[in-house]
Amino acid sequence: MSNHIDREFLVSLASALVRINTENPPGRELEAASFLAERLADLGIKSTVDRLDGARANAVCILEAGEGGPTLLFNSHLDTVPVGERDGWQVEPLGGYIKDGRLYGRGSADAKGSIAAMAASLKALVDARDRIRGRVVLAAVADEEVASKGTKALLSKHGRFDFAVVGEPTGLRVCTAHKGRLELRVRIRGRPAHASMPQEGVNAILAAAFYCSELERMADSLSRVEGHPLVGKPTLAVTMISGGIKPNVIPDECVLTIDRRLIPGETPEEAKIPFEELASKMMAEGRCTEFSVSIVQYHRATEVNPSEPIARAALEAVSKVLKVKAEPYGLPAYTDLGWIVAAGTPGVVLGPGELSQAHAYNESVAISELEAAAEIYYRIALSLLGS
């Protein structure tokens, strides 16, 4: 597909990264970060491994191309979700196998394919160093799948960049906006009693059931708001429930986990209010004895103006490589771009693979998309850093 991209380097690197287990939890990116840093150091690219804690690490690889130019960040993540039940896979999930033009395995689409394509673009840029001025930084980070510790550590150490591209499976669409995620824990307290005398207690599970039914009404209300032109409407879902200590005891506690997807402009504090108001209503009605709503995790929703230079460069590169008219796109999932934009760096999300492949059994990505992604990343760098 491209005269610039070393296909053998790209495919072998992507396959090798898939074979390195980086499941999160527990999170063990050190081996993959070290491997990537060594491969790029062999190309003459300044490469370091930034240790976080235990086996957690980022690989930070910097291509210097003259003084005074801007800095372009390529960011993607080394960690993957767990493989899950092996019986659900038709291929070895950590085998890195290539079949019928596709690379298979956990992380192939989300997001080791993006990392390999970014690395291949850096290899091509080494040969084009006289055509650019500035720096290209490839940060392959830890912990995107849980708490974004890797990107937060990167930003703490390096500050802001001039432009950023975050590699995630977008089907090579240029995402200028994506949703955020708010994880809430709702703890409902009742009063225990012998199960033969339920009237003597306050059943926390029944209270939780009422709360869930009210959440269904709340979700329906969210489905009727105007929403965002690219990412759509906010959503909520009850995703976990735990309650009871013994079959013959009226449960005095039940805990719910709620996934609330945010659209650009929503804050976690504002989104939390309706859940607390519903809790107060239940307390006033005597349905429970105690209630708490707490934020467990928060990932930012984000939006970048399509007129930003990084967005224009990305849209132009995709249009030329894929021979289509690329338009701004919205991603329903969250990414580390939220933290990068919050730190002052405009960016887009763009990478090979489809989101439907992420976290799924038999995850895979087309080799042709890896090649196209590498060429697109290469062209973005030439556009923004071209001397």
Tell me what you see in this structure:
The structure is a single chain. This protein has 387 residues and is of the alpha/beta class. It has 2 domains: 257 residues, 3-Layer(aba) Sandwich (Aminopeptidase), CATH 3.40.630; 120 residues, Alpha-Beta Plaits (2-Layer Sandwich). The protein has 9 helices and 16 strands. It has a 6-stranded mixed beta sheet, sandwiched between helices. Strands 10-11-9-12 form a 4-stranded antiparallel beta sheet, with helices on one face. It has a 3-stranded antiparallel beta sheet with strand order 4-5-16. Helix 1 packs antiparallel against helix 3, helix 5 crosses helix 6 and helix 7 packs across helix 9. The protein is elongated, with a radius of gyration of 23 Å. The two termini are 25 Å apart. Belongs to the peptidase M20A family. InterPro entries: ArgE/DapE (IPR010182), ArgE/DapE_CS (IPR001261), Bact_exopeptidase_dim_dom (IPR036264), Peptidase_M20 (IPR002933), Peptidase_M20_dimer (IPR011650), Peptidase_M20A (IPR050072). Pathway: Amino-acid biosynthesis; L-lysine biosynthesis via DAP pathway; LL-2,6-diaminopimelate from (S)-tetrahydrodipicolinate (succinylase route): step 3/3. Keywords: Cobalt, Hydrolase, Metal-binding, Zinc.
